[in-house]
Fold:
Amino acid sequence: MSGRLDFDPIFAGPFSHLLVSGAIKTFELTATSWTLAVGLGVVLAVLRASGIPVATKAVAAFVAYHQNVPMLVQILLWYFGVPTLLPDAAQSWINAHDGELIFASIAVGLCMSAYFSEDLRSGLRSVHHGQQEAARSLGLSFFGTMRYVTLPQAIRNALPTFINHTVLLFKNTSLAMTIGAAEMTYVVREIENETFRTFEAYAVATLFYLAVSLGLMGLGALVEKRIQNQGR
Amino acid sequence: MLDIIQDNWLLLLVGQYPKGPLGGLALTLILSVMGLVLSFPISIGIALCRTSPIRFLYASSTVLVYIVRGVPLVMFVFWGYFLVPVLVGHSVTAFTTLICTLIVYESAYLSEVVRAGIQALPKGQVEASRALGMGYWKTMLWVIMPQALYDMVPSIISQFVSIIKETSIGYVISVQELTFSANQVNNNLLTRPFPVFLILAITYFLVCFVLTQCAQHLERTITRKRTPKITQLRSIANDSVLDGQ
Structure:
């Protein structure tokens, strides 16, 4: 370790491109897994609220599994385990199309969908029962009630935890480095290996994660304020 | 799948112990317990700063908590791997690195649990004990903490589950805990990754699920015992910062 800080080698030449591509991969991973997680999370929460016994039990099991197994293990299971169950054609297709990114997105997305559905569920529970009864007696269907009455209120109540879990999802995309997805953490490790500028390389990645996380938290706070004002 | 368990259960349970270093599930649990026990006192200190009226303490502890909340644990593990030997002055084992990292990371998260517990108590508790002539420390020690810690037990267990899950990251720096052992098994067998990692997932699930159920049961019991405070307890349970890995 040298005594002086020198960021030049990291931002110079090929490494700056590497950093940019790492950041892009991290954002890609975040976007795909977030979309999957939110979509599936809403479906799961609605299924659980439906009161159909089989659906409720299945969703509960899904959520319990994904909340009680480390995300790293889920990623390893998807990346190393699942392809062996697929036919050869599918395997080679996946290998040709950035398999690490696909499986990391699926693993992170499924895991976080459990958290998102739980956020929504506690949001739904916080909506007074009379709201639903009133909507149904006004002639709205189950889905109409969900769409226009219950969900808007539930989402407003669930927003703070939802934002926290979005930040968590963003942070956890860094676990994809373990299966060789070339996102930010992976790239920084590589740069560190080449330049031996450990402190500087890690500092860049840390600031990147911190800036995006704080940005997401700030954005969330803004949205929260907006929605809260609308409700009044 | 059963034959894999039959051949490798000892490796998954205790690693290469007695012949080699302790590992497997045993090491995972040791890491988690040490992480919780060592970070707990620090987290109380941070929580006191976070609720402190002294501006400097409040600001610095808030900055610390936000930094930890905004940076991935993997990044912290790499920082630990790099910084701990520099700070200590000699090389340390991966185990020590992981413990140090977990302490830093978890004291920030636990402090949010403690803070939520303190703030969930009615203000009248502080006001009453101050009115009785107790100082800040006496109030905290004899009035606030006993109540807050009692209400917090379920949240602390949930946090313990998070720590167990987080120790799996030790795999990245070759701490020989459960995930690392399973990966060893996978490398020995080569051709059967799905059952091996499924066994790994199920093992974590069993340990964590039992603890989660305990936490939920305790939460109900405590809520029942402290009925007039139901609403405040619910605010602990729903505190956004407390859940998550």
The radius of gyration of chain A is 21 Å. Residues 142 and 185 of chain A are 45 Å apart (CA to CA). DSSP finds ten helices and no strands in chain A.
